[in-house]
Automatic annotation (TrEMBL):
GO molecular function, one term: deaminase activity
Cellular component, GO annotation: cytosol
Organism: Methylobacterium platani
Pfam families documented for this protein: Ribonuc_L-PSP (PF01042)
InterPro entries: RutC-like_sf (IPR035959), YjgF/YER057c/UK114 (IPR006175), YjgH-like (IPR038743)
Protein name in the entry: Enamine deaminase RidA
Length: 136
């Protein structure tokens, strides 16, 4: 007998609802005790890319942190990360500087980095899967 699928709940951080409605996707989906976060980019408040690459990466991590927080998570709850880079070899050091300041101590989450040719004007995108902590 097939079991009913867990409910799929959309998670949107405060102040970003219009962006997600305009582009017709959710910032994250909570399914059971897992949180699937859509790719986050280093967009300024008007939605345009932050021009400085390292600042763009930091802003993408800030956007990811806000989505995690809206679901009651932190980076400690992240189990899987995928990042997309327009020039991985040239960008690696800057990404690692930002990452090291955000991701906690070992054990680290799984991480897959993918080189791409287009990110809608951005040079970096990060998506994640987190386990939602049990309510205390």
């Amino acid at each position: 007998m097939r079991q009913a699928a867990p409910t799929r709940d959309a998670i949107v951080p405060p102040g970003r609802q219009a962006l997600y409605e305009r582009h017709r996707y959710s910032a994250a989906i909570r399914s059971g005790d897992l949180l699937f976060v859509s790719g986050q980019v280093g967009s300024r408040e008007d939605g345009s890319p932050e021009p400085d690459f390292e600042a763009q990466v930091a802003l993408a991590f800030t956007r990811l942190s806000a989505v995690l927080a809206a679901a009651g998570c932190t980076f400690d709850d992240v189990v899987d990360v995928t990042t997309f880079h327009t020039d991985p070899a040239a960008q690696f050091d800057a990404v690692m500087r930002v990452r090291d300041g955000v991701i906690g101590a070992a054990p680290y989450p799984n991480w897959t980095a993918v080189g791409v040719t287009w990110l809608a004007g951005f040079d970096f995108e990060i998506k994640a899967i987190a386990r939602i902590p049990a309510a205390a």
